[in-house]
Amino acid sequence: MVKARYQLIMPLRKYQKFPGNNRFWCCGALMSSRQVSILIFCAIIIVVVSALFFAFDARFLVVNVEPLGVGVIFPVLGVLGLYFSMSFLFKTGCIDSGILPRALPDEIAYMQSQGDEEPAGSGRTLGAPARYKTVQHMGQKVKLKWCVTCNLWRPPRASHCGLCNNCYETFDHHCPAVGNCVARRNYRYFYLFLTTIAVTGVYMMACNITVIVLASKKMGFGDALKTYPGSVIEFCVSGLAVISVSGLSCMHTWLIARMETTNEDIKGTFNPRKQGRTVHNPYRRRNCCLNFLFVICGPFPPSLIDRRGDMTEEYQAALEGDNSSYGATSSVPKLPPESPSPVPPNPTPPPLAPDPTSEVISMTPTASMEVRTEGEEGVVQVTVERSDSSHGVGEDETQQLILDRAGHGQQ
Amino acid sequence: MDRRNVRKIFVQRDYSRGTGVRFSTDFPRELTGKVDETTYRTTIENVNQCFDEAEALGCCNVLEGCLACMTGFALHYCFKTHYERCVQDAAKYIQQQNREVYEQRGIILGDPMDRGLRCVSTLYSH
């Protein structure tokens, strides 16, 4: 009697073998750095303070502010402040902030064969010397550095984060408070988060003062503090938040006006005193307003790493190689087939003897399965096409089911 | 195309006009005799124009950004961004060019998004 057992092996998604120090959530849809405890703490603080505000201050102000009805605006503004704070915090901390995917071996070999880099500098004595190449960039010559981890020429304004172990486009800084690097794709959310927290914090403090003042008229200052302790807690927490965030918000406002990143400001990339009088910032627009418009309302570049794409053999081999390379989606465009595919379009499953002990694997609605058998050893190749792949990969993947016919004899 | 004689070249980014996505229009010497230089340059330039349009600070883009900002960027959960649509247009254009021009000459241009916008991979038969 033939006993058939199917073991389905699903292909991995690329995020499951991502080489950087990142953490993925929701099956690769969201990502952050390894350390997210401070991000969760910030979110909890915002929610708790907002809950205290709605439970005590908002209710008091709706009832006690004259004329009656005007007080409704207080909880409405509170809801808006909470919504925008959480939305910007989520967008800052939980998305790909502009990672440059690592190069694949074929690309690395090609670039190394080009030989367009400059001779190694003489200053370094430890380890391999850094590799540079000079390119024309917006009217001035800039040096691009070869990233030995990511195996690519770092674009201008890009930098490698040692904590996350990735190269980021227009890298600003690594922010432990939001649990992510701040770079091209999430800088606007970071800046808006800081500004929203500063404004909402000031608003909360103003509401707390209003509540205490109005309550003091009825019962005295000491009694008002004892009756509304929530307002006191909110005032202290909001005060701390405003003090810590407002300075940072002002600094980034100044950086945006000058169209510089924190990284460039610290390194003095456009500082004439450090770099010489001829250096200028080519990224600045005609005026500050255009700078702000570009940063906040400018283009929204998509994520370049294909987190939810299927892991192919090529990428698996690249990850296991010395370079630990990782790329985006399918690196090789499909060549036209040389001969007709040997797999018939709709093969029928092999006839199996009815066996109550055989397992039935249920397939997900997004996958279709074709089955064919080869030989008598029971090696069954199954082609599964995942319909939810991003970037239009469209490459068929082959899965291998192992049909175990040993141990129970054949009939 | 015989797979044994397939070679790859990678057209790199051109940063001369900024950090925006732009690929070098220098004609690769490996493609000499396989495709007309003007045709190749036109293809790459049209791809560059798709990305220029994606990154331009035009009225529509700014309005889209302002509207998204006012909704707390929740708009992006419902609609694709202008940049994503331009990236798809570039991919469709490359597929069309492969179909109409390059495949019959033994060349295939790859989607730059497959390489993280680092380069445009080009396969050709040697």
From TrEMBL, chain A:
<feature type="transmembrane region" description="Helical">
    <location>
        <begin position="189"/>
        <end position="212"/>
    </location>
</feature>
<dbReference type="InterPro" id="IPR039859">
    <property type="entry name" value="PFA4/ZDH16/20/ERF2-like"/>
</dbReference>
<feature type="region of interest" description="Disordered">
    <location>
        <begin position="321"/>
        <end position="411"/>
    </location>
</feature>
<keyword id="KW-0012">Acyltransferase</keyword>
<keyword id="KW-0449">Lipoprotein</keyword>
<dbReference type="InterPro" id="IPR001594">
    <property type="entry name" value="Palmitoyltrfase_DHHC"/>
</dbReference>
<feature type="compositionally biased region" description="Pro residues">
    <location>
        <begin position="334"/>
        <end position="354"/>
    </location>
</feature>
<keyword id="KW-0564">Palmitate</keyword>
<dbReference type="GO" id="GO:0005783">
    <property type="term" value="C:endoplasmic reticulum"/>
</dbReference>
<dbReference type="Pfam" id="PF01529">
    <property type="entry name" value="DHHC"/>
</dbReference>
<protein>
    <recommendedName>
        <fullName>Palmitoyltransferase</fullName>
        <ecNumber>2.3.1.225</ecNumber>
    </recommendedName>
</protein>
<feature type="transmembrane region" description="Helical">
    <location>
        <begin position="232"/>
        <end position="257"/>
    </location>
</feature>
<comment type="similarity">
    <text>Belongs to the DHHC palmitoyltransferase family.</text>
</comment>
<feature type="domain" description="Palmitoyltransferase DHHC">
    <location>
        <begin position="143"/>
        <end position="267"/>
    </location>
</feature>
<dbReference type="GO" id="GO:0005794">
    <property type="term" value="C:Golgi apparatus"/>
</dbReference>
<keyword id="KW-0808">Transferase</keyword>
<keyword id="KW-0812">Transmembrane</keyword>
<keyword id="KW-1133">Transmembrane helix</keyword>
<keyword id="KW-0472">Membrane</keyword>
<feature type="transmembrane region" description="Helical">
    <location>
        <begin position="38"/>
        <end position="56"/>
    </location>
</feature>
<dbReference type="GO" id="GO:0006612">
    <property type="term" value="P:protein targeting to membrane"/>
</dbReference>
<feature type="transmembrane region" description="Helical">
    <location>
        <begin position="68"/>
        <end position="90"/>
    </location>
</feature>
Automatic annotation (TrEMBL), chain B:
<keyword id="KW-0472">Membrane</keyword>
<dbReference type="GO" id="GO:0002178">
    <property type="term" value="C:palmitoyltransferase complex"/>
</dbReference>
<dbReference type="GO" id="GO:0005789">
    <property type="term" value="C:endoplasmic reticulum membrane"/>
</dbReference>
<keyword id="KW-0256">Endoplasmic reticulum</keyword>
<dbReference type="GO" id="GO:0006612">
    <property type="term" value="P:protein targeting to membrane"/>
</dbReference>
<comment type="similarity">
    <text>Belongs to the ERF4 family.</text>
</comment>
<dbReference type="InterPro" id="IPR051371">
    <property type="entry name" value="Ras_palmitoyltransferase"/>
</dbReference>
<comment type="subunit">
    <text>Interacts with ERF2.</text>
</comment>
<dbReference type="Pfam" id="PF10256">
    <property type="entry name" value="Erf4"/>
</dbReference>
<protein>
    <recommendedName>
        <fullName>Ras modification protein ERF4</fullName>
    </recommendedName>
</protein>
<dbReference type="InterPro" id="IPR019383">
    <property type="entry name" value="Golgin_A_7/ERF4"/>
</dbReference>
<feature type="domain" description="Golgin subfamily A member 7/ERF4">
    <location>
        <begin position="9"/>
        <end position="120"/>
    </location>
</feature>
